[in-house]
Amino acid sequence: MCKVAAMVMASMLSLSSSVALADSTKPMPADTLAHDGNMLDRRNTMFDGINLSEQQRQQMRDLMHQARKDSPQINLQQMEAMHDLVTAKNFDQAAVRAQAEKIAQEQVDRQVEMARIRNLMFNLLTPQQKEVLNEKHQQRMQQLAAQISGMQPSTAQTPLGAE
Fold first, then answer.
1. Whole-prediction pTM
2. Best mean pLDDT range from 69-83, 107-121, 142-156
3. What is the DSSP string of the chain?
């Protein structure tokens, strides 16, 4: 029974993250791509606080536009198939596992594509901008480590960078 509950939770998480990814692929108005000259996309915190030149902003807009056109789309049929398996009269663990793996692979494909685009964007930055970005990343990682350690027993979690 515990395995069944874990599988159902995993499939629900897969579906919820698919919906979140689907929301992130919606086209955005041009005014959200450049907010106070600092940010391309309000939902993408990777470049928060980085002062970009107009040329960099335009290049990043172009990359994001191309990424929206080229990115793998959310497969609603896969989500429906998982729903059908979850709501079936009899639970078929093998079928759910196979479906979850299909959905997970599609998510991996989307994440790889987004990482590729972010890499291209990162490489548009000057060395100084990259340094600021890396400092901000370290701050976010420390905050995340602190949040995680606050949610888990202290013996189960070692803060990042503490070895």
1. 0.59
2. 107-121
3. -HHHHHHHHHHHHHHHHHHHHHHHTS---GGGT-BTTTBS-TT-GGGTT----HHHHHHHHHHHHHHHHHSPPP-HHHHHHHHHHHTSSS--HHHHHHHHHHHHHHHHHHHHHHHHHHHHHHTTS-HHHHHHHHHHHHHHHHHHHHHHHHHS-TTT---TT--
